[in-house]
Design a protein that fits this description.
The structure holds 2 protein chains of 2 kinds. By secondary structure, chain A is of the alpha/beta class. Chain A has 13 helices and 12 strands. Among the domains of chain A are: 74 residues, no CATH class; 87 residues, no CATH class. The radius of gyration of chain A is 21 Å and the shape is globular. The relative contact order of chain A is 0.13. Chain B is of the alpha/beta class. Chain B has one domain: Rossmann fold (3-Layer(aba) Sandwich). The chains are: A alpha/beta, B alpha/beta. At the A-B interface, α8, α9, α10 and α11 of A face α6, α7 and α9 of B.
Chain lengths: 339, 324
């Protein structure tokens, strides 16, 4: 559900996160802005290295050296997270904003029991006794569908299967009733049938707590299922931003269009996959002008010289491209044929 | 009817579980348990299943990179399981493999021209000049400029490395190539490049592929026929079209329904499987899928269903179809 007439829960404004490496400055996130409303799912989509994970880490301020957010604002409930002290951030992280990472094996501590790790967050954010925390942990594990939670709380991460671990991660993220959940490729490491279980669980929980979700993924199928609004990222920038139906049926950026037509699909017969020529550019040497221009079939001279801005083509639909007029009819034709 | 190039008969591969200081065998991981199928000349046979179902072990056992515990592998009319090591090595000229991870499958200390030429050298096929000329041709074929042949693997991106892996597999003009999750590690835009390349090469060289993947969308796009595996067993074999429109086995149905489709209006009933895949060291009795099956019957926990031809060229191992 998209509600426009409200203040956003989270708003990123012109976020810039750079990595200061020995070889030069990597502009991993370069001027990203978006809004997340209460109860809505925002999908951040892109290929590896496009800056989608760094965006997430910037929001919760978990960047490691040499990464640094150099510019921008992250307004969460109206307050700028970038101005918070570490102690204040610690109170927000895990409580108001929770995260689920891709690889549950590395995100969980291997030498602590699952129960300890979940109750740790509860004890930190709430004034409750240990026994109460353990009781709540068992309830949480039951809620995310882990059988025999009384036994499971005493087990270590390696004793759980991949799907179970991800469920434990979700239980941990949900433990303090967050209002914003950030999920970074939460199902990528899982098998399809387990992925279906986890996505199902996540949608149920989301509906229940009416919170918001930022879903980071490269899988357009997962996004089609769960997101309300979608931001397509390429080379550290959002290239297209719209609601789900617009992205899938009326995309206007050549990259979005190319992505949609280059994936094999179960729902239609495809003669030949579309190909995006070339490779994702090296972040140390991004091309001049539009970052996508060397791989774009609609490229003009202007694309090589001047970088386009993210402009509004209609309410709630932003596109970063010089040649929208040329792309639009092609997209209509292309999506209909299937290629 | 096309000729069968590869015929796998009752293939079994068990791995021992060893414990204690004497490394005594206390059990067996039944990775591949009595698997039979055929691959026809010039086709792409998709082999699909979740992690741990034995699809990779099947490919490695066919190549005898893992020795089979039991069974026959008839390649080009001869049983390669009975072959001596030296003969087998010669035979591998006709059977090549492309691996999943383009980073670990190329030796970082070899120039790519030597990586690609290694097979030609081992089989003593061409002299030095011809060899590198051939490497140049192969590189151009897979879309890498031949002048890069003196570079090392780290100088290439993931997609380019996968192209190098493909050039290596092509070097000996094999009859069959096993693609073991060959496109799984690649980004969306690179994946379509490699899939198209594999299709083009197949047409040009009349190659046969055993294409292993866990992604059903890719399998649907690239395969002619599909084999579905679950916990070391084949549960269904069918022509691609038949498998996706006329799905028989409850596991295949669940698997297909679980794939997220990039279409916001695609309506389907999702079958959510309960629980995890059981351990292949201790598979359930009867039908291995029965603890997670939505259509489970009494007989399923007692008797293991056989893979039988339910209708023409559509095989399925499920008691639901056994009554007639």
């Amino acid at each position: 559900m998209i509600i426009n007439n409200k203040e956003p829960l989270l708003e990123a404004k012109d976020l810039k996160t750079y990595f200061f490496t020995e070889n030069g400055i990597v502009k991993a996130v370069d001027g990203v802005g978006f809004k997340v409303y209460q109860g809505e799912v925002l999908g951040l989509v892109g290929e590896s290295g496009c800056g989608k994970s760094v965006t997430a880490f910037s929001i919760i301020r978990l960047l490691d050296y040499p990464g640094k957010t150099v510019e921008g604002e992250i307004l969460f409930k109206g307050e700028n997270l970038l101005r918070k002290t570490d102690a204040e951030m610690r109170k927000i992280r895990g409580k108001d904003i929770a995260t689920i990472f891709q690889e549950p094996m590395t995100a969980l501590n291997p030498v602590l029991t699952v129960g300890f790790q979940i109750s740790e967050a509860l004890l930190m954010h709430f004034k409750i006794s240990k026994d109460e925390a353990i009781k709540k942990t068992i309830e949480l594990l039951e809620k995310v569908g882990i059988p025999m939670p009384e036994q499971r709380i005493n087990e270590y991460p390696h004793q759980l299967s991949g799907g179970m671990r991800q469920r434990a991660m979700i239980a941990m993220a949900m433990s303090c009733d967050p209002i914003l959940l950030i999920a970074d490729e939460p199902t990528t490491a899982l098998d399809v049938t387990i992925q279906a279980q986890i996505l199902d669980l996540m949608s149920t929980l989301l509906r229940e707590f009416n919170g918001s979700l930022i879903m980071i993924t490269h899988d357009l199928g997962v996004i089609a299922e769960i997101a309300d609004r979608i931001a397509i990222m390429y080379a550290g920038k959002i290239v297209e931003y719209a609601n789900k139906r617009t992205i899938f049926y009326n995309p206007l950026h050549p990259y979005t269009f190319a992505l949609l037509t280059s994936i094999p699909r179960l729902d239609m017969e495809m003669k030949r996959l579309n190909v995006i020529p070339g490779i994702v550019p090296n972040p140390l040497h991004f091309p001049e002008g539009c970052k996508f221009n060397p791989r774009c079939r609609f490229m003009t001279d202007r694309c090589k010289e001047e970088e386009p801005q993210l402009i509004k083509v209609e309410e709630g639909h932003l596109v970063r491209c010089w040649n929208i007029d040329k792309v639009a009819p092609e997209v209509k034709k292309g999506l209909l044929v299937g290629v | 009817m096309m000729d069968s190039l590869l015929k796998v008969d009752n293939l079994v591969k068990y791995f021992p579980i060893r414990k204690g200081i004497f490394r005594r065998t206390v059990g067996w991981v039944k990775a591949v348990d009595d698997v039979s199928f055929e691959v026809y000349e010039g086709e792409t046979l998709g082999l699909v299943g979740e992690s741990g179902c034995g699809k990779t072990t099947t490919a490695l056992t066919i190549l005898r990179l893992e020795e089979p515990t039991k069974g026959q592998v008839i390649f080009d009319g001869r049983d390669i399981v009975k072959m001596k090591k030296a003969d087998m090595r010669k035979e591998r000229k006709n059977m090549q493999i492309i691996f999943q991870d383009p980073y670990s499958s190329l030796d970082p200390r070899m120039k790519i021209k030597d990586i690609i030429a290694e097979g030609i050298l081992t089989h003593n096929l061409l002299n030095v000049r011809e060899r590198y000329k051939r490497v140049g041709e192969l590189l151009e074929k897979v879309g890498i400029p031949a002048e890069n042949m003196d570079s090392f693997p780290h100088e290439f991106s993931g997609g380019q490395r996968q192209r190098i892996g493909i050039a290596r597999a092509l070097a000996l003009e094999p009859k069959i190539i096993m693609c073991d999750e060959a496109v799984s590690a690649l980004d969306v835009s690179i994946r379509s490049q490699i899939i198209n390349l594999l299709k083009d090469l197949q047409k040009e060289f009349n190659l046969t592929y055993l294409f292993i993947a866990h992604d059903l969308s890719v399998i649907k796009y690239i395969s002619d026929r599909v084999v579905v595996m679950y916990l070391g067993k084949i549960v269904e074999i069918a022509d691609k079209k038949d498998l996706f429109t006329n799905t028989m086995h409850p596991y295949t149905q669940a698997l297909i329904s679980a794939v997220p489709v990039p279409n916001p209006d695609y309506k389907k009933e999702r079958i959510i499987l309960k629980g995890d895949v059981p351990s292949p060291a201790n598979p359930p009795k009867g039908c291995r899928f029965h603890p997670r099956c939505s259509k489970v019957m009494k007989i399923c926990s007692e008797i293991e269903p056989k893979l039988i031809e339910i209708k023409e060229k559509h095989f399925c191992a499920c008691h639901l179809y056994n009554e007639k």
